[in-house]
Specification:
By secondary structure, the chain is an alpha+beta fold. The chain is 13% helix and 27% strand. A five-stranded antiparallel sheet has the order 9-8-7-10-11, with no helix packed on it.
């Protein structure tokens, strides 16, 4: 797992007080970025997760050129043969029949590129927002990218694309016309001088002299055959993408094994102890300042004003946020307490709201005081751009730090957020929460200093937090 992927996962999933869920579909529905194009469960910005290797591509051509791939261990002592009765390949190491390769997609290359372009743009936007994948200089997916492998049936398909300079490959899984379920972009060149790892295997690729690939999965005795496509890319199909690959073998035209990679098992992460059922939200007692600060106590310069309170009524806020909450809750993998809290209704407390006109960022608290909903909308309905997530309290009765809003520390009456563009800015404080702008959507996470002052203007709190500093 690369540092970039870990950072993306942190932004995409709220795993407060329960073990990370490595199922791709769960991560997709829980992803909360890339929604300025009006979607929540759009395209995962972290296609590879611990224990899940995106494979799945098929080929339709034997024309391949030389390309770099993960460093394997050449071995010629094993072979594969074909069963003359069935025409199927036999794994000589085990004697098992190999599972058949996936079907080749009948969708044209142009159609696949066109259907995956939006997913590519959203992925690139999210990478830019988080400062990740700085090595990726290949530009957007367009007609200059080569379709190196494709598989699937009907409107469902998976395809891999190779950039014109061969530096970046991308994998796109379509579950319907123009509907990408997963998408990722990765370096094509393995790390030289090191044993292959899951990070090296982000793109399914083998050396150019490999003609057949067998893939072994955890918990399955029979390997699956992949079909090798152009530039050494191979596929086992989208249907197998959630199974963990633990071994990849490659054979030359004569059936001799010349490539063998075994992926070490992933260390298990101890589960966090469950949060006691009686733990509910604990917020700091409100503190009224002697006077509202207008100047920065450190420099004497004027503070940027706090963001405005939204003119929308609480009922209007809950009604609008319910429309995007309904989309969010269609997914699986939620914290059980989140499920118990149910959908957003007028009974949810609007703890914080900022914005002007239809623009809104709000924090809502469930009636049982165990779950928050963070809602960002730039239009009156879910047909406009929005951003959304939910989370549950930790064992201490607090919510985990978020990028878009935070909880007021004990004893603090006023907060100053040192924003990179606006400069020192007064935070809007409401019901134990604070915010520094219309966070959400086109976010730009930056580490900033936050200062807290007591009722008499004395600084009693300072911390550096990674927050959303780019407002829309």
């Amino acid at each position: 797992m690369t540092t970039d992927i870990e950072r993306l996962l942190a932004a995409a999933a709220d795993d407060t007080d329960h073990p990370p869920n490595t199922d791709v579909d769960d991560l997709l529905i829980r992803a909360r970025r890339s929604v300025r194009r009006t979607r929540i469960a759009t395209v995962s910005t972290a296609v590879l997760t611990t224990g899940v290797i995106i494979t799945g591509i098929a080929t339709w051509s034997a024309n391949r050129t030389a390309g770099d791939g993960p460093v394997g261990t050449p071995t010629t002592g094993r072979t594969i043969t074909m069963d003359v009765r069935t025409g199927r390949i036999v794994d000589d190491e085990t004697g098992h029949l190999v599972q058949a390769p996936p079907p080749v997609s009948q969708l044209s290359d142009n159609s696949l590129r066109d259907q995956c372009k939006r997913a590519d743009q959203e992925y690139r936007d999210a990478e830019h927002e988080h400062g990740s994948n700085t090595f990726d200089k290949a530009g957007p997916l367009d007609d200059s990218w080569k379709v190196v492998v494709k598989t699937g049936s009907g409107v469902a398909a998976q395809a891999s694309f190779l950039a014109p300079d061969n530096s970046i490959a991308s994998t796109c899984t379509l579950i319907g016309p123009g509907k990408a379920q997963t998408y990722g972009r990765f370096q094509t060149k393995a790390i030289t001088g090191q044993a292959p790892s899951e990070a090296d295997l982000n793109v399914p690729r083998v050396p150019s002299d490999v003609r057949e690939v067998l893939v072994d999965f955890d918990g399955k005795s029979d390997p699956q055959q992949a079909v090798v496509g152009e530039d050494g890319f191979y596929s086992i199909g989208a249907a197998a993408r959630t199974a963990r690959v633990h071994r990849i073998r490659g054979y030359d035209a004569a059936g001799h094994k010349i490539y063998d990679v075994t992926i070490p098992p992933i260390p298990t992460t101890p589960a966090r102890p469950p949060v006691p059922s009686n733990v509910t939200l604990k917020i700091a007692d409100p503190v009224t300042p002697d006077a509202v600060m207008t100047k920065d106590p450190q420099t004497g310069k004027p503070l940027a004003p706090a963001p405005p309170v939204s003119p929308l009524t609480d009922e209007q806020v809950t009604s609008r946020c319910r429309s995007v909450d309904d989309v969010y809750r269609q997914g699986s993998g939620h914290d059980p307490r989140d499920t118990v809290a149910g959908p957003v209704t007028k009974d949810w407390k609007v703890a914080l709201k900022t914005g002007t006109g239809d623009k809104l960022t709000a924090v809502l608290i469930s009636p049982d005081r165990k779950v928050f909903a963070w809602c960002h909308m730039l239009a009156a309905t879910a047909k406009g751009a929005y951003d959304y997530t939910r989370g549950a309290v930790q064992a201490n009765g607090k919510f985990q730090d978020a990028f878009e809003f935070l909880m007021v520390p004990d004893g603090v009456a006023q907060l100053v957020v040192d924003l990179p563009a606006q400069g020192p800015t007064r935070a809007l404080i409401s019901n134990g929460f604070y915010i520094w702008g219309l966070t959400g959507g086109n976010s730009n996470l930056k580490p900033v200093r936050i200062r807290g002052y007591d009722a008499h203007g004395r600084q009693i709190y300072t911390a550096q937090k990674s927050i959303d500093t780019d407002f829309d």
